[in-house]
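[Solved] Which block belongs to which protein?

Original post:
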Amino acid sequence: MNEPATHTRRSFCTLGANVAAALAAAPHVALGRTLLRLAAPFAPDIGVCTSIGNADVLRRSGAAYVEDSVRRLLIPDKPDAAFARQLDSAQACGLPVRAANGFLPGSLKCVGPQASHERVLAFAETAFRRAARVGIEVIVFGSSGARSIPDGFDRRRAELQFVALLGKMSILARRYNVTVAVEPLNRDETNFINTVEEGARLVEAVQHPNIMLVADIYHMLREDEPPAHIRAARAFIHHVHIAEQEGRTAPGVHGEDFTPYFQALGDIGFDGPISIECRWRDLAAQLPRAMTTMRDQMARVA
């Protein structure tokens, strides 16, 4: 089992002071970003979490990029010859592949007595190296099975393990110019990092620009997490996922209103991508409505 370094313990213990300092500076950051927004509407790029095989459908509907899966597209557990064919397909798909999710398999444990950081980092290095070749900018770190805390294991110790792992991973992420974005997941999927608030606390402990945070609006809705938590985590929000809360459906299916969350993103000057990550009944039929719904709601951001 990998034990966290002493400096990681120190940074974690001083986390409260660091967060307080960041939040104290935040109003000035918000003011600058608000002034910039007066000249530009809130209109971030919209992409879709799906296979690159659906790129034509996405392009016809106006999506800006594809967010594929690490294990499906980058196949870090397969030899380079197999990845070469994947790379050819990605380069020929007609849309940028800007992000990838589905990072670690559940067998690569990040925390607990069976944690193996060496194996995780070896897998991550292959993934990041291949991501750089595809042009992927963001690796979404959800991986509920890999990061869940085993029953009976001390939560504080798991947090220290996870921060230590992210610290080591940041070195690889910087080497290959990718950003690892930790994704809070609702408690039905994992017992660890369920909210943006919790995720921001751990990401702040790492203190590295290549380790950031996802705000997944679906999971925020499931956890009753308010938009204010996006504002509080403004220094760390790098990537966004979205789906309706009811049935994890595409925007526009049930008419759910995301405007309060879009407003919070606008307030922090977020200009990164937003990926639709949902359950599609018919991608080609539903995506145009999803795109229209999101753009209409984004247009309401003051």
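(Second protein starts here: sequence line, then its structure tokens.)
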Amino acid sequence: MNSALVDYLRVLRIRWRFVAWGLLIALGATTILLLLLPSTYRSDATVFVRTPGDISRVVDGGDRYAQARAKTYAALASSPSLSARVIADLGLDLEPDALAGRVTATNPPNTALIEISVSAPSASDAQQRGTVFLSEYMAMVRELESVPGALVPRAELVVVDPPGRASRVIAWGAPLSVVLLGAGLLGMILGATAAVLRSVFEGSARDQREELAITEARTTVSVRGETAGRQEREG
């Protein structure tokens, strides 16, 4: 086994308390931070991009058009102009950019689906905003896809899953267990680093003390030798 690795493991075995304290401090700090963070709730919904007009009669049934539109409208979901319509409907005291930042929309690959999430400080607000957002979202798409003289738009959004009961978002959207595990690993790494640095500094200080002691011993021997030689010459 590599000698450096052996030395590293020996240091960790001797100074295991550093690793333990790093773990406890990291978990404690993460827990306190999670408790202090404001509550956030999220309501999820899913819509499907349908092509009811002439596009549906092409060879692929309009699948390519729908999938391309799904990517475009997933990006449109975070538009401040769309959020402004929701704010006006609900009379919210929010800036459009602030509400837009609480909306996420993703288009799963090779599908015409759009998965939407709307966040708010309370469960009721999240579901209400999700419902109104979805209504305005569908209206905006219908306006953009409407063709003068046509009875139906080129594409429209169809609700697959309506905004459901909001759930609380914890640990920055990641599972709590994953966040705590990551914090614990980080704490252990920092503790192990502190243990190694402490060992290096103590070893350096010990070497300096030993070197000083050797120098002093040599000086004492030299002085004593000179004194003895002078006494012999005087005698």
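Accepted answer:
You had them paired correctly. Confirming on the second one: Strands lie at 40-50, 103-106, 113-120, 156-161, 167-169.
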